[in-house]
Amino acid sequence: MAVTVFIRYQLDPFKRAMFEEYARRWLIIIPRCGGDLVGYWMPHEGTNNIASALISFESLAAYESYRARLRTDSESMANFGFAEENKFILAEERTFLRQVTA
Predict the structure, then answer these.
(1) Quick one: how many helices (H) and strands (E) in the chain?
(2) Is 46 helix (H, G, I), strand (E, B) or coil?
């Protein structure tokens, strides 16, 4: 069963540009490590501190393999470090979704 991970980020609204740089890096890293990246979304109108991402996988096992690859990828680890060092992500929530089909 295919799954899609919905990631909801609560951002420091004064560091949105840093989050956007972080998200742009994932556009390359995630597909290379096995995720089917649907995309990242930045606040545009209204709430200025919520961003999101959607990444699909063939199965939960594929997701676990992807997570293992992220931990051994130097660019991935550098991007995690960039976020931790600059503290622009205040909270992160992951929800695992399955698509409704006929």
Answers:
(1) 3, 4
(2) coil
Average pLDDT, the chain: 96
Structure tokens at 77: 């680890």
Nearest to 37 by CA among 72, 75, 63: 63
Q: Measured on CA atoms in the order 81, 40, 89, 56, is the torsion positive or negative?
A: negative
Q: How many CB atoms lie within 10 A of CB 88?
A: 22
Q: Where are the alpha helices (DSSP H) in 1-102?
A: 16-32, 60-72, 74-86
Q: Taking each helix axis as running N to C, give the angle between helix 16-32 and helix 74-86, from 0 to 180 degrees, rounded to the nearest 10.
A: 160
Tell me which residues of the chain have a pLDDT lower than 70.
Answer: none
Cβ-Cβ contacts under 8 Å for 43 (sequence gap 6 or more): 11, 13, 16, 49, 50, 51
